């Protein structure tokens, strides 16, 4: 599906107030990245570019000699052979030029490809080592997204622009040396004439960039609005409520705002651009008049004059390229800082610590507290409880009470900010998170729907057993996901609608597969976070029955808003504002008449109300 072309978002570059050494270090770092990506293509690209940069001066010089010889030939004394040999050199230069540029662009393309691959690889390596915490931090996530988006252009941009700068210096020095022979004022005047245009274009380049930056927030909102209109998952709701015109109007309002700013910028840029070209023309006119005076005095040849005329365009183009290259490198380095910031984020070594072996028989929370990074509020505090093998513990509480957070701590995705968690009486922090996680299996509230085969959807819980067909089948049976057999390719059927040939499943079917994934891993701790939210009544009943059987030789943790599910647990913990306010069995908590009883009563009354016969009209 194609949506409206998204407005280019200027990615947020790192602050340009970084210490002066940072840019140099980033430049070197970028060049190292480029070099490592492909030394062979880096060298080829640099060499062909530099050699090619000396060609304009060589061409100018041969052209001058040829013209002078032609002029002399008019007076006789020059052989046809001499003219032909100069022509031969000129043709050879043209052939060399096109050979160099062919090799240059081929090596640039291959270097770009290697670079994109190697930097993407580094980003993905980094992303796989980051903690879950890092992903929940909006700024880090932004950096990751941006690094990934920019990976194809920025590092190569820095390298090619840097080589371009060196090439421009070579061109300028060689062409400049030729022109300087025509009079000491020629080169300064021509250089001066190049400046106004470059200054204006740079100044408005920066303004344009700032404008885009100012618009970043609004552009994101506009893109979001466009995304709502083109989203396959939201189309049902958008159509039914019919708010397309509202979305379109808001989308257009943003566009009109951007358009106004763009028009103002274009007007000013055109005015200044025109003024700059006038100044430039005056200076070139002055230089030409001076050259012509020397020509009138017979002090320069027709070849010299051609060096002057053709040299002007060459110098102006090179100066513009040089200054634009400097600002281009600077801008690209700002983006590279984002990439480096991301690559420099601390990893969370999931294998650090002692290795945990064997089943977990008890989990004990001792005064556990937790605060999300960059927030100023504890979402859990003083949480203490113990759960033993064979027990099913349910967590209840209203939205935002801290249930999922508690599970994240239990599963070592996050570490407590206070208190400790003991496993079989030993501090969990001593053990490597990964080795502990191997003993745990989970179905999250927002479980994954992997656009892969049904088998992979189950076996991802333990990829080393990806080919364990009986194991997968067993998990599928336990999860009541028998529908898999009715799929055209059985367990091998690709799922989801993202790729061709994929079968889309219903929400409940996806959830059953996620349950199968949980069962597939041989774990001593099972965590069910709203495991039945998308299930029908029968499936919920079956799941709960299976869960009760599973629970006998394991620790089971259950989060649910459905009391029909919760009441099956041996013990229930009631969380409120991150604190345990009650705990006990279903019967005990009802008898106590506290928070649990109130919540239970509310839900029970909801059912009862639905069962009341309709009042006669
Ligand atoms: N990544 C995060 N960064 C900052 N705060 C968070 C983050 N995730 C959750 N919170 C906050 O932590 C509190 C507890 O959230 P949690 O998801 O644990 O609640 P819950 O009891 O599972 O809620 P629900 O029943 O809605 O699933 C909430 O106030 C929430 O706003």
From TrEMBL:
Q: Where are the transmembrane segments?
A: 42-62, 82-100, 156-179, 185-206, 272-292
- The residue ranges of the ABC transporter domain are 363-602
- Family annotation (SMART domains): AAA
Q: Does the keyword Transport apply?
A: no
Ranges for domain ABC transmembrane type-1 come to 46-331
- Composition bias (Pro residues) maps to 1-13
Q: Where is this region: Disordered?
A: 1-22
PROSITE patterns reported for this sequence: ABC_TM1F, ABC_TRANSPORTER_1, ABC_TRANSPORTER_2
Record's keyword terms, sorted: ATP-binding, Membrane, Nucleotide-binding, Transmembrane, Transmembrane helix
Source species, domain of life: Bacteria
Pfam families referenced in this protein's UniProt entry, alphabetically:
ABC_tran (PF00005)
Q: What is this protein called?
A: Xenobiotic-transporting ATPase
Taxonomy of the source species: Bacteria, Thermotogati, Deinococcota, Deinococci, Deinococcales
